[in-house]
């Protein structure tokens, strides 16, 4: 899909809103829209432009999920950093740029999706191949659902906009109940499942969303909805949809489109992209002008590590240390620790004893431009499908402990060098297995919230880990984030701030 996201076309210019920090997204004029969507290829470019908003998704997961979780102890090291309040549960997060980006980028993607879907509805007959027309709609609806799911997990209630609206109309749209937003998400994903293929045959289509990717994300939606409510307007609705999720995940498994790779580092190798583990990923094009590669490899990596090795400065700035609790949780023989984590280094003759995540860094491929890393980000991989399915089983969603839980978990552990098989496993223990397997992949915070463990794990972790006494007490309101201040300022009274934040 390296040609899908970032081909420089007129579409990108037409579909980007004029204001990224406000909800009042000014639509392109109907005349311009109608003029542009005049041949079938215009729709392809329009769909591609919706994919483009995935570009910062990996960075967002590292900044808002990984950093929020007990995987990192990212308190002050002498300067005020944007991630500090995220990690330390500050109440005054409404102006945090990470939250601004999450809101603006997702809604920009939704706006572009609505534009494409509106044109398919009115001008779609230009695409005479009905199967292709349905595929374009399915891809676009998957992406709209994906962006809304991201918003719900961060903010809870959000404005539900399923068509292009004017600036004036947007100012009258309040935040919708989470259940209503999920309604659109599920409808969009089901349409994607019904109209997408399992595999693409043309090289130019490599990386496009597939039927199985839609099944995997819909399963995760059902699992997230089944999580506890915490008595807040968050992503969990307390529903018992584990069986629905199990069925979808099992369909992905029995499709035989994916395979378990025996070497953990090979899953993330720069020379092994689009491998048999990848169900859905964000793909990047490198060496282009303008530069449109990946930035996520250095997000959690301090700059002085790169410079100490004679590499160009990237953008990670200072260190976000891996939590001692996570470091100590790895068994001695676990090879994932050395691959994922750098345990100290020396820069300018000074030893840095703290550890950091280096999972996506290949020191032989550090680019001159920090915006041009040549590696894709795996959003959903086959191992995740297997372990999510195990989670459903442990929650009573189907299957049995031996086949659906112990076999895949022991397979994952054996790949990591842990040869003694487990003979029993609780949900809490499964989450610890996931913690080490998916470290630095942005899943930890979502796992804690979905499982209900966030209420006990985070307070206990803060007590044990916060040696600098920088972190605020955790309360259930912090399951979701603050609404960005820019959105509260768009129209007084349209939105109210999430409980627990200033």
TrEMBL record:
Domain SusD-like N-terminal, residue spans: 42-221
Principal subcellular localization: membrane
GO-annotated cellular components: cell outer membrane
Chain ranges of the RagB/SusD domain: 375-501
Organism encoding this protein: Pedobacter cryophilus
Family: Belongs to the SusD family.
Keywords: Cell outer membrane, Membrane, Signal
Subcellular location per the Swiss-Prot or TrEMBL entry: Cell outer membrane
Zinc-finger in keyword set: no
Domain of life: Bacteria
InterPro entries named among the record's database cross-references: SusD-like_N, SusD_RagB_dom, TPR-like_helical_dom_sf
SUPFAM superfamilies: TPR-like
Protein name: RagB/SusD family nutrient uptake outer membrane protein
């Amino acid at each position: 899909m390296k040609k899908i996201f970032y081909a420089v076309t007129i579409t990108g210019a037409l579909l980007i809103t004029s204001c990224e920090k406000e909800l009042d997204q000014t639509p392109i004029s109907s005349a311009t829209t109608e003029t542009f969507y005049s041949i079938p290829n215009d729709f392809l470019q329009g769909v591609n432009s919706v994919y483009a908003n995935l570009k910062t998704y990996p960075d967002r997961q590292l900044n808002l999920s990984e950093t929020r979780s007990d995987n990192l102890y990212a308190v002050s090291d002498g300067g005020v950093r944007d991630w500090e309040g995220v990690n330390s549960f500050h109440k005054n997060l409404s102006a945090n740029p990470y939250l601004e980006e999450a809101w603006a980028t997702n809604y920009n993607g939704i706006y572009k999706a609505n534009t494409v879907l509106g044109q398919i509805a009115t001008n779609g007959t230009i695409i005479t191949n009905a199967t292709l027309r349905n595929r374009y709609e399915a891809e676009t609806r998957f992406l709209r659902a994906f962006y809304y799911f991201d918003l719900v997990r961060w903010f809870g209630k959000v404005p539900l906009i399923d068509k292009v609206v004017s600036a004036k109309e947007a100012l009258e749209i309040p935040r919708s109940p989470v259940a209503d937003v999920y309604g659109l998400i599920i409808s969009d994903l089901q349409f994607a499942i019904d109209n997408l293929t399992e595999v693409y045959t043309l090289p130019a289509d490599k990386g496009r969303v597939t039927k199985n990717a839609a099944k995997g994300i819909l399963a995760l939606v059902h699992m997230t909805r089944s999580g506890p409510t915490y008595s807040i307007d968050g992503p969990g609705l307390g529903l018992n949809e584990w069986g629905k999720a199990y069925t979808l995940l099992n369909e992905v498994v029995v499709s035989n489109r994916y395979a378990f790779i025996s070497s953990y580092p090979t899953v993330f190798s720069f020379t092994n992209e689009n491998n048999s583990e990848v169900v859905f990923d964000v793909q990047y094009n490198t060496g282009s002008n303008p530069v449109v590669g990946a930035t996520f490899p250095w997000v959690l990596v301090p700059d002085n590590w790169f410079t100490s090795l004679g590499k160009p400065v990237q953008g990670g700035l200072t260190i976000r240390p891996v939590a001692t609790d996570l470091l100590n949780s790895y068994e001695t023989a676990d090879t994932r620790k050395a691959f994922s984590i750098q345990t100290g280094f020396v820069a300018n003759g000074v030893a840095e004893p703290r550890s950091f995540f280096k999972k996506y860094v290949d020191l032989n491929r550090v680019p001159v431009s920090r915006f041009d890393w040549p590696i894709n980000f795996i959003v959903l991989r086959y191992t995740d499908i297997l372990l999510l399915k195990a989670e459903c089983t442990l929650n009573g969603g189907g299957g049995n402990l031996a086949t659906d839980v112990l076999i895949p978990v022991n397979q994952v552990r054996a790949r990591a060098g842990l040869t003694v098989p487990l003979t029993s496993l609780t949900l809490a223990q499964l989450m610890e297995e996931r913690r080490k397997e998916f470290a630095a992949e942005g899943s930890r915070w979502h796992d804690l919230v979905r499982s209900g463990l966030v209420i006990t794990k985070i307070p206990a972790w803060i007590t044990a880990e916060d040696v600098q006494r920088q972190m605020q007490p955790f309360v259930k309101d912090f399951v979701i984030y603050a609404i960005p201040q820019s959105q509260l300022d768009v129209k007084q009274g349209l939105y109210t701030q999430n409980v627990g934040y200033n």
